[in-house]
Design brief:
Blueprint: H1 2-18, E1 22-36, E2 45-60, E3 63-79, E4 84-91, E5 94-100, H2 101-107, E6 120-128, E7 131-135, E8 138-142, E9 145-152, H3 159-166, H4 169-172, H5 178-194, E10 195-197, E11 200-202, E12 205-210, E13 216-220, E14 224-226, E15 233-234, E16 237-246, E17 249-258, E18 261-262, H6 264-272, H7 279-284, E19 292-293
Antiparallel strand pairs: 1-2, 2-3, 3-4, 3-5, 4-7, 5-6, 6-9, 7-8, 8-12, 9-10, 9-11, 11-14, 12-13, 13-16, 14-16, 15-18, 16-17, 18-19
């Protein structure tokens, strides 16, 4: 079931995975392909993901005591039809503990929990060892990421509908319809209400590349810290030891913090508004949609 689910058959296997029982599950490799429509007038774009050395231990009624993936690798088509390009990424090992497969699937509209309204723990002690990303004009490495806990309830817009929305020709057009903009606004408003997490720590990244004039540039950061999500709030974000160097000059700072914000006002406004949300509606409520920033 797990192999079929991660290879593209998630919807058909979700109910079985939510109640899975196994002492140990080990899968050497799984490859999944995702194809989405390209920008207006362009061919579809394909992404390929490969997961290696998958290991679930002590799975009882859909909850795995441990879940590890030895590494991931992927490619994504970027650029344009006249100038096709490919981006690549790799990550090191990532692991989680006490993974509730049913609750995690339910968040995205799969399995028996897909219509629930209760916030449930999804996992604890997430860690990612870091990785690399490269495209024709840039190459980056990024450090480890850790999150102690995460919980959520099912989203009102399920994953399948969201993927269709993100890949729709209407959204790729220069002037998406009010109906499409409304669906996106409702999704993001619901996301911040549904998600709860402990703070995230990220060891930073380092990138080098060339700009549109073929001039070399580089930028790097130290640790990034994001506070916990929950209660209709976007947490504070602190970035340290940023440095940029390029043809235009250099820029650096020791630390900068974007204060957290209370999104409850804008969320309630979007939820209660008559649909679809038109351009006139956004203009009339522009000030009401500004969140309340801390301090």
């Amino acid at each position: 079931e797990l192999t079929r689910a991660l290879s593209g058959g998630l919807a058909s296997e979700a109910d079985k995975l939510a109640t899975l029982n196994a002492t140990s599950i080990r899968i050497p490799k799984i490859t999944a392909t995702l194809t989405l429509p390209g920008p207006e007038g362009q061919a579809p774009r394909k992404s390929v993901f490969t997961y290696s050395d998958i290991d679930l231990e002590n799975v009882s009624n859909g909850v795995a005591q441990s879940f590890t993936v030895g590494g991931t690798a992927g490619t994504e088509e970027v650029g344009s039809e006249t100038s096709p390009q490919t981006a690549q990424f790799k990550t090191g090992k990532f692991s989680l503990e006490d993974v509730d497969i049913g609750a995690s699937l339910g968040v995205f509209g799969f399995g028996p929990d897909r219509s629930g309204t209760t916030v449930k723990p999804l996992y604890k002690n997430f860690s990612l060892a870091g990785g690399t990303f490269s495209a024709p004009d840039v190459a980056c490495s990024f450090g480890a990421i850790t999150i102690a806990t995460a919980s959520a309830r099912p989203l009102k817009v399920n994953f399948s509908d969201l993927m269709r929305l993100l890949g729709s020709p209407d959204l790729q057009s220069k002037h998406p319809s009010p109906e499409t903009i409304t669906k996106l606004a409702v999704f993001y408003a619901d996301l911040f209400s549904a998600l709860q997490s402990s703070p995230l720590t990220y060891d930073g990244f380092n990138c080098t590349g060339t700009d549109t004039d073929k001039q070399a540039f580089s930028f790097k950061t130290g640790p990034l810290k994001i506070g916990g999500f929950g209660n209709d709030r976007y947490p504070a974000v602190t970035l340290s030891n940023f440095a940029f160097s390029g043809a235009s000059g250099t820029l650096g700072f020791d630390s900068v913090t974007m204060k957290g914000m209370d999104l409850s006002g804008p969320i309630k406004l979007i939820e209660s508004a008559a649909k679809p949300l038109t351009e006139e509606w956004f203009t009339a409520h522009a000030r009401d949609l500004i969140p309340a920033f801390e301090g």
